[in-house]
Specification:
There is one protein chain. This protein is an all-alpha fold. The chain is built from 16 helices and no strands. The chain has one domain: Ammonium transporter AmtB like domains (Ammonium transporter fold, Orthogonal Bundle), CATH 1.10.3430.10. The longest helix has 35 residues. The radius of gyration is 26 Å and the shape is globular. It starts with a helix and ends in a 6-residue tail after the last helix.
Length: 443
């Protein structure tokens, strides 16, 4: 009996010797899968929630005040109304189909319908672009970008577009232009596959909005009295407060695009500050030299231009690269908002193209010049320190977005104009949009 028991134990031991290595191999094979499984991080989630609030603050009240202060008194309510109404409308469209078109799996041209009406969105689900935060948070963060982009366009046609036309145009534009371009660059589309670098929206947001603004200004035409009447800002204090809110909110815009509370977010925050400050000073000194006085409008416009230009580069450059980007963008945006606009003769009311279009384009190209592999190169198509090849890639990416945005914007404007008309009447424009479109005025 004893012998039999020992034999059984011996057999069991032999089986264990054979089984344990197999078990160890199975556990080893399972380890990578376990390591790759999404694991929500409370710190990352907290930072992304904060960043979402910061970016929403950029539109309401930041952009609303920035733009509202720069128009004439008779149009201030209509201008802030545009920012607020766009925020509401784009939010609903994002829920219905916008997010799905931009960030759900589809083709390299546009996303699919997997998230239409937020279908399949769960409490603990994650998106591949932000695996340590709930997809609900990633979706909301991206919504704030989808809101501010069309809101920026409104600066180009301020004081003369019908409110009804603005609503139709922005709804169509957000789905036909913004969502596909966001997908091309960030959502798994062909520009991302090409290796185009756009950390936080230099192409997707600023070139896109700036070009659309220019097309709007050209199609709608100049304001009555442009070039002969005084169209100075009615309250630059509002604009300074708005620009300040934009600056603070931009830390969520850029550092939040790191998708977590990471060292990359810290560097993105640092370079954002340096670029904004350098660009503000560059614009101020350029204006001081050429016009004799440094203006309040100039320094805040320069700061916004620097923030625009550093946006595509924020996750890829050093502080010294940011300093260079800030100085260059401040000077070029000053020229764009003054010399270029005067030479071309268009009426971009609040310099949406001069600051965002030109600043975004300059920033996109300079990202290829100043990108540093050790900061943001991992997984970016073999990115090395600033090189001609990357600059060319950035150029092609920008040109593709410019082409689609310009053509689609023009077509949408023409359709809306044919259906309901784009512009208010001469009498309404002269009297002011506040009283005629909204039945309200400020005193």
């Amino acid at each position: 009996m004893k012998f039999k028991t020992n034999s059984v134990l011996a057999g069991a031991g032999a089986a264990a010797v054979l089984f344990l290595p197999a078990l160890a191999l199975a556990q080893a094979a399972a380890t990578p899968a376990a390591a790759e499984a999404p694991k929500l991080d409370t710190g990352d989630t907290a930072w992304m929630l904060t960043s979402t609030l910061l970016v929403l603050m950029m539109t309401i009240p930041g952009l609303a005040l920035f733009y509202g202060g720069m128009v004439r008194k008779k149009n201030v309510l209509s201008t802030v109304m545009q920012s607020f109404a766009i925020t509401c409308m784009v939010s609903v469209l994002w829920l219905i189909v916008g997010y799905s078109l931009a960030f759900s799996p589809g083709s390299t041209i546009v996303g699919g319908l997997g998230r239409i009406f937020m279908s399949g969105l769960t409490l603990d689900g994650v998106h591949d672009l932000a695996k340590t935060v709930p997809e609900t948070v990633f979706m909301m963060f991206q919504l704030t970008f989808a809101i501010i982009t069309p809101a920026l366009i409104a600066g180009a046609f301020a004081e003369r577009m019908k409110f009804s036309a603005m609503m139709w145009f922005m709804a169509l534009w957000s789905l036909i232009v913004y969502a596909p371009i966001a997908h091309w660059v960030w959502g798994g589309g062909f520009l991302g596959d090409w290796g185009v670098l756009d950390f936080a929206g230099g192409t997707v947001v600023h070139i896109n909005a700036g070009v659309a603004g220019l097309v709007c200004a050209l199609v709608i035409g100049k304001r009555k009295g442009f070039g002969t009447e005084n169209m100075a800002p009615h309250n630059l204090v509002y604009s300074v407060i708005g620009a300040s809110l934009l600056w603070v909110g931009w830390f969520g815009f850029n550092a939040g695009s790191a998708a977590g509370a990471s060292p990359n977010a810290g560097m993105a925050m640092a370079v954002t500050q340096f670029a904004a400050a350098a660009a503000a000073l560059a614009w101020m000194f350029a204006e001081w030299v050429t016009r004799g006085k440094p203006s309040v409008l100039g320094i805040i416009s320069g700061a916004v231009g620097g923030l625009v230009a550093i946006t595509p580069a924020a996750g890829y450059v050093t502080p010294m690269g940011a300093l260079a980007i800030g100085i260059i963008s401040g000077l070029v945006c000053f020229w764009g908002a003054t010399g270029l606009k005067k030479a071309m003769g268009y009426d971009d009311s609040l310099d949406a193209f001069g600051v965002h279009g030109i600043g975004g384009f300059v920033g996109a190209l300079l990202t290829g010049v100043f990108a540093v592999e050790v900061i943001g190169g991992a997984g970016k198509k073999g990115l090395i320190d600033g090189n001609a090849g990357q600059v060319l890639t950035q150029l092609w990416g920008a040109l593709v977005c410019i082409a689609w945005c310009a053509v689609a914007t023009f077509i949408i404007l023409k359709i809306v104009d044919a259906l309901i008309g784009l512009r208010v009447t001469t009498e309404e424009e002269v009297e002011g949009l506040d009283i005629n479109l909204h039945g309200e005025t400020i005193h």
